[in-house]
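REVIEWER CHECKLIST
Item 1: Sequence provided? yes
Item 2: Single chain? yes
Item 3: Sequence as submitted:
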Amino acid sequence: MKLPFPLIPGRLLRRYKRFLADVELADGQMVTAHTPNTGSMQQCALPGAEVLLSANDNPKRKLKYSWELVRVNDSWVDINTHRANRVVEEGLRYGWIEGLAGYEVKPEFTFGESRLDFMLARDDEKVLLEVKNVTLCCQPGVACFPDAVTLRGQKHLRELVAAVEQGWRAVIFFLVQRGEAQSFVPADTIDPEYGRLLRKVATAGVEVVACRTLVTPESVRVGSRLVIDLPSPM
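Item 4: Structure as written out by the authors:
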């Protein structure tokens, strides 16, 4: 999907209060940008990092600028978590995701006590799919999730395994924003319970899928699948 145009280059000074970032623009101007990401943003919010902002002149907005991309290890990373589902939806509708092509796509489907990101339908088959945005690498080339303890994410895994028990096909989909990533693992040192649950639901039939994004200053789209590695925690 296309990104806002044009994006404005700058240098990150600091991220604070979760949703705010101070940025020095190329002309030396200091601005405060909205940060559309609720995670810890480890590795993505380092002072001095090269960033790209979008601008909006709507007078009702408190902040004119929004932080969109950051360069990490020579690759652009999309930090806007609100865009993750739209990127996956585009991939689903265009048939770009192996094993998930050819379905009718219905966003935001209520199941149990959760609202999951997508329900896919084809003939008599129905699939529940939950998306998680990944910006952290635990090791070089190894993406991992989560970057903070996520009780909500744990709840989603329980809902997915309940769906499998009721005859659904269920998928947990990790959208990996790190261009250097070759594989995916759970971040056991950050949220050991999430890692335990992910292994449990995978054994119970929930499909674990991770795809790397292709990010440029002009667009973001779903790319190739990554290897899923679910080793026993140390």
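Item 5: Key structural point noted by reviewer: The mean pLDDT is 95.
Item 6: Recommendation: ____
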